[in-house]
Each structure stands twice: as C-alpha cells, then as structure tokens.
Design a protein that fits this description.
Layout: H1 2-12, E1 20-24, H2 27-40, H3 43-48, E2 49-53, H4 59-67, H5 71-74
Parallel strand pairs: 1-2
C-alpha cells in the first residue's frame, strides 16, 4: 500500500512514473494491493504498476522469473527502490532469535 501512496504523491507533484514494480512475499497481500490500486489510482497509473510475489532474500531471482527478464538486466536496473520492513522479513538470512 506504500507504493500506491507514493505513486499518488508523485503524480500530484507532476512526476511521471514510467514503470513501478511492487513486491511482497504474500500472494494474498499482492491481490489486496491490486484491488486497492484499481480503487485509488488512475487507470494510467494502474497500467504502469506491476505486482509480484517475491521474497526479500531472493528478490532479484524471484523478479527475474516473474518479469521474464535475465537477472543481469535487473541488477542496477532500478532508478529508485523503496523498502518497508525489508530486513524484518528476510527469513533466510536473519538468525533465529530465542
């Protein structure tokens, strides 16, 4: 939902987003975000926004598969990355806390 708000704010400031990719590890939350995008963004902005289930710890690999793009084209291919709770939910690299 943060991405939706960010796109709305950028539009209000006259900043055009060419393409945006939103990810979450939860397919349920991705579907909720898609519904919310259709409700609160312009159709033009909705067309520029893509949603994909991807894990933070394997983000590049997961996006490579979802976007059908070689991993090497994704690395360094984003102008802006906005992360919320990205470290908090990296299960594979975070040590277990007892």
């Amino acid at each position: 939902m943060n991405q939706l708000h960010l796109m709305s704010v950028l539009r209000q400031q006259g900043i055009r987003v060419e393409k945006a990719v939103e990810t979450d590890f939860s397919a349920v939350l991705i579907e909720a975000a898609k519904r919310e995008a259709k409700r609160c963004l312009s159709p033009d902005d909705v067309d520029r926004l893509k949603f994909h289930a991807a894990k933070n710890e394997s983000l590049v690999n997961d996006l490579s598969i979802c976007l059908k793009t070689e991993r090497s084209r994704l690395e360094g291919g984003f102008d802006f990355i906005f992360g919320v709770n990205t470290i908090r939910y990296c299960r594979a690299i975070a040590p277990e806390i007892s």
